Amino acid sequence: MRRVVITGLGTISPVGNDVETSWSNVLNGKSGIDRITSFDTSDLNIKIAGEVKNFNPTLFFNKKEQRIFPRFVQLSIAATKEALADSNLKLEMKNPRVGCAIGVGIGCIGSITQTHKAFLNKGQKSVSPYFVPSVIANMAAGNTANYFKLHGPNICTTTACTSGTHAISDAWFYIKNNIADVMICGGSEAALCELTVSGFANMKALSKNNEKPREASRPFDKDRDGFVMSEGAGILILEEYEKARERGAKIYAELAGVGMSCDAHHITSPSPMGEGAQRCMTTALHSAFIDYQCIDYINAHGTSTRFNDFTESQAIREVFKSHADLLAVSSTKGATGHCLGAAGGIEAVFLAKTIAEQIAPPTTNLVNPDPECTLDYIPGSKREMEIRYGLSNSFGFGGTNGSLILKRYT
């Protein structure tokens, strides 16, 4: 059976515009949440988000590319550049064995709203010929593949907040089943605009802590009052193990297994006791051919909402039984906020760093643990520990679930 390893990482996030900066800030519990600067929030009751800061497109794109690539595509390509440089992978021209799978939750909804306003005011002539190619979700994968000339499998998963994790899972399947040797994969999202913030706010899903934005995202804390919407991109280079070893690639970890499931319960609320999440994690364990006692650390979905944090904690207890008391669990969303379709990609990058460095990140802003959430969520500070296997969870609207299991490479 073909093995799949991670040889390159790239990310742009609210806590940094590269992997090392993002990882350092996450390890040190630094929040990337602040007042929104990209649009006017005067008429909104939510004024905070996890924006990517000081991203300079001119460092990556010419004037035409800046005009035709929407923000989520720009973030995807920029993170991919970092991941490819990190992997030291030399791409062969027109190689059908190198592909791209990038998940996007929403696409460029900001461009849709702006173009619609222009159309209502000025009619058809105001609509750019690049409008449709700039807003559909698969353009992160499509434009990234075109930019780097990737001729292998090309796919975009759009499964809400599980999009990035499912894209990585798809990439794993392609390599395992000898459809590709290398896959560039992960997630990208740049959906911050008045419309999306208003929609989530009216669902009462967002934190209202406008006065203290850096403390607003607080997974598993009894004082949490909702998630914080964010943007970013997280990209991994997956390679077939033997080929990676032959070229002397640096290996962060092995992607040992993946899991997927559906709650089939409610369009937004998780199933009671996290039954869908339980099935997802169990499937991932089976695909990795390991027992639940092999897992040492979990990067939780941990959104800072009342229902998610509780049901995920219950699901972990059900799957890991008495071993749950020995697990270290943390949510990096305390620092980054919730990057929606990019979350799974960014958190997979963090899990790869966790495994490679044997350091588990803390849950930022966890000060008063919720008594109904009874696991070890690494409050306070990072933890050096032995981590043989780590697991990352992503759950999304529509009841969709995804889990990844990474194994330490020795």
3D structure, described in words:
- By secondary structure, the protein is α/β, with parallel strands linked by helices.
- The protein has 2 domains: 4-246, Peroxisomal Thiolase, Chain A, domain 1, CATH 3.40.47; 257-408, Thiolase/Chalcone synthase (Peroxisomal Thiolase, Chain A, domain 1), CATH 3.40.47.10.
- Helices cover 34% and strands 19% of the residues.
- The strands form 3 sheets. The chain has a 10-stranded mixed beta sheet with strand order 5-4-6-7-1-8-14-13-9-10, with helices on both faces. A two-stranded antiparallel ribbon has the order 2-3.
- The chain is globular and about 65 Å long.
Q: What keywords describe this structure?
A:
410 residues, alpha/beta, Peroxisomal Thiolase, Chain A, domain 1, 2 domains, 10-stranded mixed β-sheet, two-stranded antiparallel sheet, 14 strands, 34% helix, 19% strand
Please compute the radius of gyration using only Cα atoms.
20 Å
Strand count: 14
End-to-end CA span: 19 Å
CA-based shape: globular
Which CATH C-level class of the largest domain is it?
Alpha Beta
